[in-house]
Protein 1
Amino acid sequence: MLTSELKSKIDALWQTFWANGMSNHIVAIEHMSYLIFMKRLEDLENDRIIAAKRTGKKYSSVFDGKEEMRWSIWQNYEGEKMLKHVTEKIFPFIKNMRGEESYFTEQMKNANFEIKSASLLQGAVNMIESMRITQQNQDVQGDIYEHLLSKLEQAGLNGQFRTPRHIIRMMVELLDPKLYQKICDPACGSAGFLINAYQHILKEYTSEDLIEYDEEKVPHHLIGDKLTEKERLFLIKDQFYGFEFDNTMVRIATMNMILHGFEEPNIRNQDTLNKSFKEKEKYHVVFANPPFAGNVNKSEISDNFEIITTKTELLFLELFYNLLMKGGQAAVIVPDGALTSVSTAHVNIRQMMLENCRVDAIVSMPSGVFKPYTGVSTSVILFTKGEKTKDIWFYRMENDGYALDEKRIKIEKNDIPDIIEKFKKREISEKSWIVTFDEIKNNDWNISASRYRPYVKVEVKHEDPKKIMNEILKLEDDIDIKLKELKDILKNA
């Protein structure tokens, strides 16, 4: 989460963008990503050079013979010189640094550097330098994206809003992906799920004494020192796949993954609901929080879908199922309406999932999780393809560690550790319960947690009946005495 000081800096920078004519928020986000990429590229190259020297290996840096491309060289240029240097040299350099045949170069082909103001560029560079972005706080890029995206008036209308990183980490922890499992996010945004799944696996192969944890218990220094060369190559080349229909977000996701060690990220510009998308039964694991709101043009919908609907929330649910190979697992976020609506298409997709998948768990999240973008209620569904559901473990999350209002400040109440712990044993508690397949079937395949929440039993402490009777008799004696005294008073009056 961003500090209030850093939020103020970003807001001030945005005002500068606005004043200089860059009023499109997504363009602003994209260009901040370019600049962060430029800075982090030098930091990562320096780390790789040092690592190569330690191991005695040869390493060819992208900066060999091009020292003027280093952030540390040009960040102190005066305004006009910096703007000319970045526009004419740095930006073309990063667009083509992977070679003409690379997918990154292909994605960057139509990208343009649209900052035209020297003062705007210099202000952005100074702000990014002051953030001290390192391997230990690399989530700052995503947090900047989140804060800027909160300004988009249409964020809650088109369903495009960033998944909080602590929710992503919870979902990854629950599913516990492993090395050699092919992992996909069919609506990857800035690649948050893919990067966190990568870090989860990397942690398993990093010596414990090398790992450091921040105040939120997030691990850092995940170097994967226990990985063989074969394992490392699979991890960074063949394990992770992301698809995104927005080309700007494809570039942001690609840069984000490169900054996390992926030389050629498998991020593709693709509408996964469209006829042109042909992949099926290819992945072991699917993570997703796609833009559910809205409808798709019927003529453009993929032929792979059996459920007749144009609603994206239902098409994506079937897509997750289609992408998984038998035995594959998914952890995905859905709006609660998908779990409760009684329309034919809604009921059919839920029936299909429960009869063809083992729905392992549904975690109901409070409506404030996605504020300030939207207050819509959502749930996390975890399922395994290829087995019929016998029963479902439900958990009703009440707190996620942050206030459920617009400010989302950190608080002590947090159900996430309890969710992770109880999920492993499918433990029943005041916030978790199990519901059978037959009960769900008899309720129009409704799989909302609130529909089946047990009544909370309230224990009432009862006194000993003899003690109660003695107190009643004593009370009666006292009343008789008072009445007698009152009669005597009235008699003598």
Note: Residues 153-159 have pLDDT under 50 and may be disordered.
Protein 2
Amino acid sequence: MIIAVTADYLQDPIACLQKAFPDAEVRSNGTGQILPRDILLSKIVGADAVIAFGRDLIDAEFFDAAGPQLRIVANTAVGVDNIDLAEARRRGIRVTNTPDPVCEPTADAAWLLMLAAARRVTEAQELVRSGSWEGFWPTLLVGRKMLRKTLLVVGAGRIGGAIARRSIGWEMNVLYVANSNKPHLESSPIEARRVALEDGLAQADFVCLSVPLTEETHHLIDARRLGLMKDSAVLVNVARGPVVDEAALVRALEAERIFAAGLDVFEREPALQDGLAALPNVVLLPHLGSATAEDRNWVIEMATASVIAVLRGQVPENLV
């Protein structure tokens, strides 16, 4: 039996896997970096199970390289846009993800970005670190208030729901966009209201994106929809980078068509759209949504448990 682990994690799953399957060959990454495609494909040859990194492209070529004995790909992410699910289904390969560990820290990151963008933290940090700050002044870096403002959550799944729940302390008016009604969000104390995307964009002071990346959500926020937003609004993306047309966002920020943006993900990650990094009215994080020690350890524990379950002939949790 061969189990391949394509990335390095804070908590090494190898000991747990070898305890469960003493005779298994467990192949690790060991480089501290994402594996080049050719090395990745060589690493998975003959694998019965793969614990995959969310940036690995898992397609027909990947499945062919592994071989027909491959039984499970445990993706260490909530999103599975890196996986050809139809091809996995055709081959009878099970795919799992890790939604629970990603939910709460990503919602925290969304609020971090909202607060930082609204209060102009990028500019404030640069001012203080430059040594040119001359002290308090009434008009210095005046930002936007969050208390009792309108928040639009686009994508009201687990992460979107957690983002909405955090609005209670700010007494916000919460709107949400989803494919179905969410009674748990519409009831007290959140009392959110479901709206169409265009209507919500026109009303919101803060727009937070937490949708999966699909054909329908690619460039969901484009130039036209940015144009619907208030010029005082803040846009935050903790979903996937291509949900936003990054070039259109740069133009909107340059023209001060919206007040600010906060991004944890990027359209061509890790590359940035030309002009984005130079903008003062955007807060940029390097895809840190779930980056707490506790939650990253939980991710690998969950993926490892899924592999063990499938290789023992059991149904794993979080089967996609």
Note: The chain has twelve helices and twelve strands.
Protein 3
Amino acid sequence: MHVQGHYFPKASSNYQQGVASISDTCVEISYDDQLISSHAISDITLTSGLAGLADELNFNDGSRFIPTDVNYRWPFKANKHDLLERLEKSKWAIIAAIIFTPLFMWLMLYKVVPAIAVYSVDTLPRSVVEQMGEQSFTLIEKLALDDSELPNEQQTKVQQHFNTMLNALSLEPSVYRLSFYKSEAFGANAFAMPHGRIVVTDELANLLANKPNALKAVLLHEIGHVVHQHSVRMTAQSAASTIVLAVIFGDLEGIAEVVLGTGASFAQQGFSRDMEREADSYALIQLEHLGYSSNDFADAIEALQGAHTSENEHLEKVNNLLEYLSSHPSAQERIDNARK
């Protein structure tokens, strides 16, 4: 049996016309009846044949032979290659791939990746978390924070409340540190860094100056983020999602990058909402443990909601899809949960 094709010598992109002659034990490559090379069939590697692509012979010396006829299949072709080609041509296999690939992606991004994130944070040394937190905090400080203008007396009072809660909850003061900053970017807000630093803006401290228990509820919420290692888990999930997408789809460019990046963002937003609910639950439980009321948490959310009236008016107009994309549960949901 003779097969026309192109012969590529070892480590070369140049080729020459050739004919592959097949016997029971070997394949000989010749040109104008002159033998170029001979190879035992047992030493030949076949590429996985797909419709429209030629079966390429790879020889053990690094050379290769590609038939001119893309539909030609070698008689010694392995069964596994035939199976791949049949699957590639099967409409039922294609339909199954269309159905199960999104399901697989959902399983990976919404179940496996979060599970990996939860597990991985327990393996990180404290020094890594500390460095991650300080680097993140330094960047945020440069971009969005200004020196606090709160009176020292007011700062001291909040710090005392914070220290009292740490002692009552047996939390290490060297880990949970409170900082005050003024921020036009964040407004009345508070946030926790991975390593335990909790930032309270002047705007929030002034907003809740007459509601100290409501401010304690906010601080407990931020402590909950640190206790449950939410920042580190989010980072781990983001990294794992990127790896999963890269392994499945290869390089992400153009439209593919936009679409797949949006999918990863959806998954991360959902994880963030779960984190917020977990931090809310922590705050409500500890409020009761410390002898306060869950209504203090509801009062804090209502005050924050009132401080961002224009934002809330906008949020009331969005549809359910945009509400789904929010990284936090709705303010009303959190208030109702606390009031209960």
Note: Residues 262-269, 310-326 have pLDDT under 50 and may be disordered.
